[in-house]
Each structure stands twice: as structure tokens, then as C-alpha cells.
Amino acid sequence: MLPIRIAAIVILHQPWIFNMVWKFLSVLLSPKLLSRVYIWGTSVDKLSELLSAENVLSIHGGPYPVDHNSFLQDYFGESLPEA
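Now predict its structure.
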């Protein structure tokens, strides 16, 4: 098994089929990993438990813009090529 470092997996606004598939997949995961998976549906306000407010995307009520160029610039120092 590969070493994987995951602090948290947050799933928001999942479709109904995800809940059915998750029941089958979750039995394959370790208890340690399962304790780091948060399935919150529409409870966006719970994001503050894991993230600081400035890192929440604007579509979830935070200040961080949903802009791919902004993301690439912040994390990788480059932008998308002009079309």
C-alpha cells in the first residue's frame, strides 16, 4: 500500500447516487482514512471547522474567487495561456 497523507476530504453538494456508492466504497477504506472524510451535503457553514475563512471559495460564501487563473497564480506562479 502506498503512503498517502490526507488531512481531510470534504464532500459538499453530493448527488444522491454518491451516498449509495459511498456505502459500498467506505467498507474498503481504513478507519483512519474514514475518520478524515467529511460528507456535509449542503452544510457549507461547517467548512470553518477545517479551513480558515480566507481559503473558502466564493461559491461557498468565502472571499476566495473561483477563478482558475487566480488559483494557478497563487499556487504555481503561472497563468492559463490566452486563447
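Residues 52-83 form one domain.
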